[in-house]
Design goal:
Blueprint: E1 3-6, H1 7-23, H2 27-39, H3 43-62, E2 72-80, E3 83-86, H4 91-103, E4 115-116, E5 123-124, E6 132-138, E7 143-150, H5 152-155, E8 159-163, H6 169-180, E9 188-195, H7 198-208, H8 215-221, H9 226-239, E10 254-262, E11 269-276, E12 282-287, E13 315-318, H10 324-329, E14 335-344, H11 347-358, E15 371-373, H12 401-406, E16 411-414, H13 420-428, E17 432-435, H14 441-445, E18 448-455, E19 464-478, H15 485-500
Parallel strand pairs: 1-3, 2-6, 9-10, 13-14, 14-15, 15-16, 16-17
Antiparallel strand pairs: 2-7, 4-5, 7-12, 8-11, 9-11, 14-19, 17-19, 18-19
């Protein structure tokens, strides 16, 4: 007997799941992060985890995105061979309709980040379609679907290697983690795929991230296979590196390691690694022909009772009267609360500024004595002045550092580390780089009291805004002398973990 799957059931189920994961963390992640928060000894890392947990609860209550980067949609379909799709359209078209419906929902419109013509014009599709879909035909009379929304910051840190059969996977992972920096917004998960061919290994790594976090349970009962032993070894050795939450140094860099493998050629050992960030978003549902599936809402009482508040020692900064002398007094690791007006800008805006300067054209805004925030916010709804507006990865703006600082910028705000050239440029200009917490986008947006587009309106979320902020929390990551928290803090914590025998739980 065949099962008839209606296209409307698919569309409704996909749309509901994508809205669900935009504002509900998986509870296994929240429980694991709550345990990590209690165990964390690094003050900066503990503060960052507190922001992430507070943000998560706010998003669950307000049904607003956990992160401003609401991701590119990944869909894994296991299609029961007794099922028939009741439609003349392709499965891709139907699931894309579900994506479109979710991302354009007026009550919680999600950021459209998908671009067509990726090598050249890079034009936004405006509805976050198409999704990236993988279909497997399996025995049975049901459809099993996993949906995920993968942010660019973590996806861009994907690593792959065609290893020799005798090469060490553990050594390779430990070599890659420092290269990944903090742009993937730890603490998160590592998904690892081993075997098959190159593309199969990467697919396995991505699919592994759909699994539940169970490292604590695995350690408690003990490993029962080589793969489980490998998971524990990688988990312990990665956390011993001391990278910590947001790269600020600490005990918890990852909360779990997931591994899937597949038979491979005798001459090969393809290995891929993909991290999931602090805004990990995925859900599972099953269709059996009886109608659409709407996921059960979690109980807000299950969230850890963590309420972030500004550090009493944080320095309040008046952006409207900020001087280079004040910036020079900031030290790496200082906590600041920003007040006043700041500009925004990210990849497309920086590229256009460069092109305009090359042509001798006048810029739409004056950057002298200003601070710029690397952000692409979600559109506002209801009473909001701006939607979730967490930082984007600052490293992508490194090549523009000299140009922007020559225009008179006093500081920039983003997430993750700056590269050596950008750090040197910051020191040369006696500027500073400030880090906001990735994974706390809704919390950050509450500090934004006004938002006006002042340049490049055609770029949508990549336009230049002027934000009016009140007590926006940031940490000085690179000070005017070039001291860099993302370089120094993990080294301090790596040594501390080794000397004191500390391990992440």
């Amino acid at each position: 007997m065949t099962t008839l799957i209606k296209e409307t059931d698919l569309i409704e189920s996909v749309a509901d799941a994508l809205q669900y994961i935009s504002y509900f963390h998986p509870m296994d992640y929240i429980r694991a992060l709550g345990v990590a928060y209690e165990a964390e000894q690094g003050p900066a890392a503990k503060d960052a985890i507190a922001q992430i947990l507070t943000n998560s609860r706010m998003c669950a209550e307000g049904h607003r995105p956990i992160c401003q980067d609401t991701g590119i949609v990944n869909v894994f379909v296991k299609w029961g061979q007794k099922c028939v799709l009741d439609s003349e359209r392709s499965l891709q078209e139907i699931i894309d309709d579900g994506v479109r419906k979710a991302y354009l929902l007026p009550e919680n419109k999600l950021r459209a980040s998908v671009l067509t013509d990726p090598a050249f014009t890079r034009v936004n599709t405006r509805d976050n379609t198409p999704c990236v879909m993988h279909v497997e035909m399996v025995p049975g009379d049901k459809i099993s679907i996993d949906v995920a929304a993968k942010g660019g910051g973590s996806e861009n840190k994907t690593k792959f290697k065609m290893m020799n059969p005798s090469d060490s996977i553990v050594n390779w992972v430990l070599e890659m983690i420092p290269q990944m920096g903090a742009g993937w917004c730890p603490p998160g998960m590592l998904g690892i795929g081993i075997g098959g061919t190159a593309e199969k290994a990467v697919l396995l790594a991505k699919e592994s991230l759909m699994g539940h976090i169970d490292m604590a349970q695995l350690k408690e009962r003990g490993p029962q296979s080589d793969i489980e032993r490998l998971r524990i070894e990688i988990f312990d050795k990665v956390n011993a590196l001391g990278v910590g939450a947001q790269g600020l140094g600490g005990l918890s860099t990852i909360l779990d390691v997931k591994i899937m493998d597949y038979p491979t050629h005798a001459a090969s050992k393809p290995v891929a690694m993909i991290p999931n960030c602090a805004a990990t978003r995925h859900a599972h549902f099953t269709l059996d022909g009886s109608g659409p599936v709407f996921l059960e809402r979690p109980n807000l009482a299950d969230w850890p009772q963590v309420a972030w508040a500004p550090d009493s020692a944080a320095i309040r900064v008046d952006l409207d009267r900020l001087t280079q002398e004040q910036v020079a007094n900031w030290k790496a690791g200082d906590r600041l609360l920003l007040n006043g007006k700041m500009l925004t800008g990210r990849d497309a805006a920086h590229k256009r500024i460069k092109d305009m300067l090359a042509k001798g054209e006048t810029l739409p805004v004056d950057f002298k004595n200003r601070v710029i925030y690397y952000v692409g916010p979600v559109d506002p709804v209801r009473e909001e002045v701006v939607g979730p507006a967490g930082p984007t990865t600052a490293t992508r703006m490194d090549s523009f550092s000299d140009m922007m600082l020559d225009l008179g910028l006093l500081a920039s705000v983003g997430k993750a580390e700056r590269g050596p050239a950008a750090t040197q440029s910051i020191a040369n200009h006696k500027s500073a780089y400030l880090m906001a917490v990735g994974g706390a986008a809704y919390l950050v947006s509450r500090a934004i009291k006004g938002a006006t587009v002042v340049g490049f309106a055609d770029l949508g979320m990549e336009a230049i805004y002027e934000f009016d902020v009140k007590d926006m929390p940031v940490t000085v990551a690179v000070d005017s002398s070039g001291d860099n928290v993302h370089q120094s803090a993990p080294l301090i914590w790596k040594k501390k973990i080794a000397e004191e025998g500390l391990l992440a739980v």
